[in-house]
Amino acid sequence: MNEWAGAKGARTRIFCGVRPTGHLTLGNYLGAMRRWAEVDQYRADALFCVVDLHALTVEHDPARVRRLSRQAATLLLASGLDPQVCTVFVQSQVDAHVRLSYLMECTASDGEMRRMLQYKEKAAREERRGGSVRLSLLTYPALRAADILAYGTHEVPVGEDQAPHVELTRELAVRFNRRYGATFVVPRTVRPPVAARVKDLQDPASAMGKARARTSGVVHVLDEPAAVRRKVLRAVTDGEPDVSYEPERRPGVANLLEVLAACGGGEPQRLAGEYGSCGALKEAAAEAVVEMFRPVRARHAELAADPGQVDAVLRAGAERARGLAEPRVDAAFEAVGLLPRG
Ligand code: TYM
Q1: CATH architecture entry for 196-305
Q2: Per-residue pLDDT tens over the stretch 145-176
Q3: If you measure from the C-alpha of residue 33 to the centroid of ligand 1, how many angstroms do you get, rounded to a whole number?
Q4: Does the model's pTM come out above 0.90?
Q5: Which residue from 16, 13, 47 is spatially nearest to 154, judged by alpha carbons?
Q6: What secondary structure letter does DSSP report for 29?
Q7: What residue ranges do the domains of the chain occupy?
Q8: For site-directed labelling of 31, which of 50, 61, 221, 293 has its Cα 20 to 30 A away?
Q9: How many angstroms does the Cα of residue 18 sit away from the middle of ligand 1?
Q10: Do residues 139 and 57 make contact, with C-beta atoms less than 8 angstroms apart?
């Protein structure tokens, strides 16, 4: 334990990020945002960050990144994050992330970065498209580690897919502390109790992802109710008329049952017994999603009509984040042998 980790009476600090690489989805909402708003912001000193720098690791359109960053921040607030209770901010407005990222690049090895599965997959995809692979895609885990370590984060609540990155972050923190003295808290991953892993409605073998080119299987939080219904009613199942909860054999039906359960509470297994046909299950799931998103959409519309208010929240959030991150990052700079700032 180092000095920060051991601070008596200190509240648990958690850090979560969302990447503005597409419109936020039902997967982001059920797997992350809802729990952030209902539980995490109250149980800890929580920082919620729109990690916009991470949107630049692949080819991007500047206007789109700008639009999606603002939209993501607005949606975080609309989903119930209360700026009086937690800190909501945009990564690029806090320089400490980039400063510390460089030190993480000086701590990690080339091999470690190249081994990350996400890099291998995305680099292969970019190459297939004939594009070049940005160096930042390779070094992305260093920035990600910096996001977490700059804040003395104790817990990072993430889904299965993100766990290897937190593992690397832990290794970098331990290595840095061993080389240069206790500087960073070694964070741990926490899995949400019901780890909703929402699948693409058209491809239930894959997660519902916001950056997918084909969006007919991806429900966005801001989709019109009619679009939500259309997507859910057209979800791929398996041609069997009845409903049963068998995630391995019937992934499409299981996904709908899990979504319905996550929206309204209840157990997928038990819900399966309540529906006589896949059609009825789809109707119920569609309504549940529409109803769940109704207040979020309404609040988003209110906030979007007053962008000055959202900007003010983000400014205050960035200021608090800077105050938390800078002393630790300054200490890390000194620890590696750089002259003090002044
Ligand atoms: P991102 O933007 O892909 O996802 C944000 C959050 O949403 C969850 N999530 C899902 N949950 C259930 N089902 C799905 N289909 C689904 N899709 C996404 C993710 O688990 C995540 O909690 N690399 C991160 C952003 C990041 C970050 C960080 C996170 C950058 N630095 C530091 C934590 C700590 C990402 O791409 O998240």
Answers
A1: Orthogonal Bundle (1.10)
A2: 999 999 999 999 887 777 888 999 999 999 99
A3: 10
A4: yes
A5: 13
A6: I
A7: 13-191+307-335, 196-305
A8: 61
A9: 6
A10: no
